[in-house]
UniProtKB/TrEMBL annotation:
Source organism, top-level taxon: Bacteria
Keyword set, alphabetical order: Membrane, Transmembrane, Transmembrane helix, Transport
GO MF entries: transmembrane transporter activity
Pfam families the UniProt entry points to: MFS_1
Regions that span the bilayer: 12-33, 53-72, 79-100, 106-127, 139-161, 167-189, 224-249, 261-282, 294-315, 321-343, 355-375, 395-412
Membrane topology: Multi-pass membrane protein
Compartments (UniProt record): Membrane
UniProt domain Major facilitator superfamily (MFS) profile: residue ranges: 15-416
Gene Ontology cellular component terms for the protein in this record: membrane
Source taxonomy: Bacteria, Pseudomonadati, Pseudomonadota, Alphaproteobacteria, Sphingomonadales
Matches recorded under PROSITE patterns: MFS
Name used for this protein in its record: MFS transporter
Amino acid sequence: MEQHDKAGTRGGGRVLAILLLAYIFNFIDRQIIGVLAVPIRAEFELDDKTLSYLGVVFALFYSTIAIPIAWLADRKSRVGIIAGSVAIWSLFTAACGMVQNYGQLVVARMGVAFGEAGGIAPSYSLIADYFPKSRRARALALFSLGIPLGSALGIFFGGWLASHLSWRSAFVIVGLAGLPAALLIKLLIRDPERGALDSADGRSSEPAPPLATVIAALARIPSFWLLSFGAASGSILGYGLIFWLPSFFNRSFDLPLSAVGWFYGSIVLVGGVAGTWLGGWIGDRIGPANPGRYALIPAVCFLIAAPAFALGLFAPNMIVAWLLFTLGQMLALAWLGPVISAVQHIVPANMRSTTSASFLFINNLIGIAVGNYFLGWMSDRLKAQHGADSLQYSILYGLAFYVLSALIYFVASRTLSRDWFRG
């Protein structure tokens, strides 16, 4: 145990840095579509609802393919699967810049989804085998910094490249830039023994059970479903905002595309990094003594995030808007470290990839598909009443999903201690 623990911990920093780099490119490639939606919508003459189908198709394809890939990762090389996934999503992102019509763009985004489906759940499992339980929430929070960092960079560079070159060039450049990360993963990361840092004798866990066994086990764990649907409800707004706020700032605040990139990108960067790291740090500080606190942290944060975003939508000036949106962004991403860590701890090590993929299936299927579509659909519905401000009110009404998420997490905080795996 001691030797493996030392080796795993010693190599953990390098592994985490490389996986974080890949995750940053994951979210650059995934979220660049938000800022590029403005010129794409104009070129292909789309309404908001039709534009939102990009997110729906992405979510359906991503969520469906992620579970079988994760099931394979519980049996085969996680490193090989992650490296291949990074290469695939990078190439398909570049392909998005070569499309000639909206239908081709939808197909290219399906390819991005296929690649991204194989990267995240195996990474969660890999990180859990490099860091002991006492440090996992922080390690997973550090890995999750890829979300705000990648989203912010996608907004920064997407807006700049689209303004100075074209939206097509933006896709090609950021897509090809991700390929070196795949090579680093393949060459510099080894696949450690599964569960060796969890067992008393340092031996790895039993071989992964059949998929049906994992699903049957999860069906009997109430906390899994509460954590999944709590995350999904919050992600409806999380993914919806990252897709639609650039358009909101362009329409309601009259910001040009280049200014949107810097304004919203800085909100995502500052608020997202602070919230993601803070949530993981607090989780490691107060969670081990009472596992229910891993769910209590996002419950409280979402209850405060909703009014912060609501006030930001009607801020009197850009400075006040930036402060309120940054506070909201910080609180809205504080769930990542504690909740993802909790998901790793409610099942044995040989089920972690499949369990993480099942969690992500629910989170992304509902979060991306419903979030992108709901805000676009609601915006079109409110045009008669609110005109050019319809997207503003669509986002306002959608904040109810943060309140719903908080309520679900409050319930989860009462079940986690009972469902915690202590094998």
